[in-house]
């Protein structure tokens, strides 16, 4: 909260969570005698000036903080010693009063415990989303795990992942979060609970953690694990405690590739279950007729069939599937395969568009300064060359013995940026070839002159 007078430098500048208005402005507003007898005759509406609500000055028009105080709060003083960052991110965050969070035992997402819990959650989600589709790829059930790769061990491991994920969902009810629209950290327990329970994503994620209750209690199909696909949400939008990871450019570039591979794994398992691969494996018995070899080693038939489905799903999600009907293959005359291709084929075009957009966006961000420099290069060069043109023309006139060797055009010729870009290269090479003095070159090319 901004101090009203003199405050310690260790306090953070915070915004009010409900209004996003600096708290001093909110506190100072009631101090105005809006309903005074003398002012009431003027009119209440004339006194409600919006600029007063957002005033960052105290009573008497004096600033409640200086530029130096603000600088010390958000800039890292040891940055120039290569021991810190340029900005202190945690000081820029806006949240409620810290005492409010402490009184209700709310875990702030900036705490190291919250970061550790989020990292464990990502590992659990990654393992779960690899194992869960494998449980239903060839059929089977909790009572008869014969066709489940790895047998009951795979199912038990997936069950433990669900329990760990359920613990994290309960922890989210006691953890602060960054409001998606107002970008403030909410630490009020009632608002946290209301936000979570009204979130469709949270409800779906909570239901996915109870899949094995329905599978065991009602002998439901393992295909119910398909609902765990919603957990990919954690990689589409990283948890709030890991918000600083988005500054990593490598992660931003690899995320679309990871999501594409992950989604292809799920679609491939679903295609193997309902696209004809499961029936082909059952009809072959042990799957020996689908075995493949790699470097002299025999790959089991069930894994070879899975990889066939994975490759087809990968090409389908990238819009490059050349045999959508599956003629002459395992998917030939299979209605489930046709249905999946009809659904995921158009989705693949959207995925490719997002993939390209992510790469282009990252490249633009990486070369933003260079692009801006190229746009401003002509103007900057013009501002430096204009004062030096008379000196350059005079020097060339003296070198040529009273006759200028080149005719320097009028200033109006250089007003177009394209001509300035070509002129820069020409003048630079001319100054080198004609052995123009270094001082004059500095007058032309120095950014500070």
What's the Cα radius of gyration? 33 Å
Number of helices: 20
Pattern of helices and strands: HHHHHHHHHEEHHHHHHEEHHHHH
Helix content: 55-70%
Keywords:
4 domains; 449 residues; two-stranded antiparallel ribbon; 57% helix; flat
Describe this structure in words.
- Strand 1 (177-178) and strand 2 (185-186) form a beta hairpin.
- The strands form two sheets. A two-stranded antiparallel ribbon has the order 1-2. A two-stranded antiparallel ribbon has the order 3-4.
- Helix 14 packs antiparallel against helix 17 (335-366).
- It is mainly α and 449 residues long.
- 21% of the residues are buried.
- Mean pLDDT is 73; it is low at 1-61 and 404-416.
- Helix content is 57%, strand content 2%.
- It contains 20 helices and four strands.
- It has four domains: 1-91, no CATH class; 95-243; 248-366, no CATH class; 373-445, no CATH class.
- The longest helix is centred in the C-terminal third of the chain and has 32 residues, at 335-366.
